[in-house]
């Protein structure tokens, strides 16, 4: 007696795990002034700077947040300001901060503005995960529109294999083979 085995030959495509893939898109128009990661295949860590982009919208949003914070501090320190005025100032500052966070500002960038550091007309994009750069879609000097894809980054520690198996052979294929 012996175990019967069946060999199934097939082909497949190796691709990154979709849950470990990040596409960095621009959330406001601007111009690429510096590429800190300028080649496909570069190995990067989470939080590494990728590119510096000039944007008037970034500058105006930063200034708007700084002004909202100043108004909030003024309302809180003014003994004649009513509770409604203070609450309105806090609400405006919070909504401005949330809008900046949704536009891609990191917590560190927002905290720098809160500490009163100088506003900047450039934004630095940081890697959301550690991995390999699969795509770089920009060059220095490119004018960018909102929604443009800058980079695609993948953590290649886990890969998927998409196999093509003939219908007649499906019963011979098991998980983990």
Task: Walk me through the structure.
The protein has helices spanning 56-77, 83-102, 107-114, and strands spanning 11-16, 21-25, 30-35, 43-44, 49-54, 122-126, 131-136, 143-144, 149-154, 159-164. With 177 residues, it is of the alpha+beta class. The strands form 3 sheets. The protein has a 4-stranded antiparallel β-sheet, with no helix packed on it. Strands 6-5-3-8 form a 4-stranded antiparallel β-sheet. It is elongated. The two termini are 24 Å apart. The model has no long low-confidence stretch (mean pLDDT 87).
Pick out its properties.
10 strands; 28% strand; 177 residues; four-stranded antiparallel β-sheet; alpha+beta; elongated; 28% helix
The helix fraction, in percent, is: 25-40%
Report the order of strands and helices.
Answer: EEEEEHHHEEEEE
Number of helices: 3
Task: Estimate what percentage of residues fall within beta strands.
Answer: 25-35%
Unreliable runs: none
Termini separation = 24 Å
- Which class do the helix and strand fractions yield? alpha+beta
What is the averaged pLDDT score?
87
Mass-distribution shape: elongated
Q: Give the strand order of the largest sheet, numbering strands 1, 2, ... along the chain.
A: 2-9-7-4
Give a short account of the largest sheet: 4 strands, antiparallel
